[in-house]
Amino acid sequence: MKIIECVPNFSEGRNIENINKILDAIKGIEGIKVLDYEHDKDHNRTVVTFIGTPENIAEAAFRGCKKASELIDLNVHKGEHPRMGATDVIPFIPVSDVSMKEGVSIAEKLGERIWKELKIPIYLYEEAAKTPERKNLANVRKGEFEWLKENIEKRPPDFGDKIHPTAGATAVGAREFLIAFNVNLGTNDLSIAKKIAKAVRFKSGGLRYVKALGFEIKERGIVQVSMNLTNYKKTPVHKVFEMIKSEANRYGVSIIESEVIGLAPMDSLIDVADFYLKLENFKKEQIFERRIWE
What we know:
Layout: E1 3-6, E2 9-10, H1 16-27, E3 33-40, E4 45-52, H2 54-71, E5 87-96, H3 100-118, E6 122-126, H4 137-141, H5 144-151, E7 170-174, E8 179-185, H6 190-200, E9 210-217, E10 222-229, H7 237-250, E11 255-261, H8 266-276
Parallel strand pairs: 5-7, 6-7
Antiparallel strand pairs: 1-4, 1-5, 2-4, 2-5, 3-4, 8-10, 8-11, 9-10
C-alpha cells in the first residue's frame, strides 16, 4: 500500500480552539490518519503528523493550510521559533511504496494550488528545491515574515509574486525522515544555549546532519537547544545528546530533559536504547508497548 507522511508546521501554539479547527480540517479528508500533534506556547507553533495515500494527502494539507490562513495573522504573531507563514512548512515524506520523485511531484502540485487558490506564495525546498540554496529551509526563511513582506521581490517565490498580507509565505517540499529533538538546560542564560547550538550544528563546524538554534523558554525560566536531525542513521540521536552534555558541562550547566517533537522512526530510538542500556542487538520485539498503524 502506498503511504506518504505529511508534517505541516502551523504558527499557532496557544489558541487551542484554533489549533483544533486546523486539525478538524485535516481530519475531514477520508483516509487521512493523524498520528500526532504537539503545540508549544513559547515557540507559538504546532506540529502535526498525518499519513495517507498520494491521492488524499495533498488535499488534507491544503485544507489545513487554508484553515490556518483564515485563523492566523502573522502581523500579531510572536514566538521563539522562526516563521514566515501561518502554515510555515509542509514537507512530504515517503513511507511505503512511494518514491521521493512522487513526493516532489505532490509538493509541486500543492504549491501551485496554494498560490492559485489562497494567494499564499510558495517556496519549494529540500528535495523539491529548484536551486541548491533552497534545499536548506533556513535560507528560504531567512528574515522571516517581517523581512519578506517588505522584500519578497529580492527572494522571488517559486509560485506567486507577492506576500499574503496575514498568512505570509509557505515552504512546501519533500524530504526523508527528520527528527525534531530538543534539549532543555538548567539555566536562563540564553547565550549558553546559543553557544552550544553553534558548537553542535553542522553549519558552524559541528555534527553532520544537525541543525540547531538556542531558544529561551520564558514560561519555565530555562533555555533550550532546539534541533532538526536530518539523517539519524549517520548522526544518531545519542551522539548529539552526548555532545550537548559535554558542552553543557563546560559551562557548568545541567541538562533537565530532552524531548522529541512529533514522531521518530523506531530504529532511531532503538539505537538510543542500545547505547544507553549497553545492550547488544536490541530489537523492537523487546519493547513492551508499541503503536503501529495498520
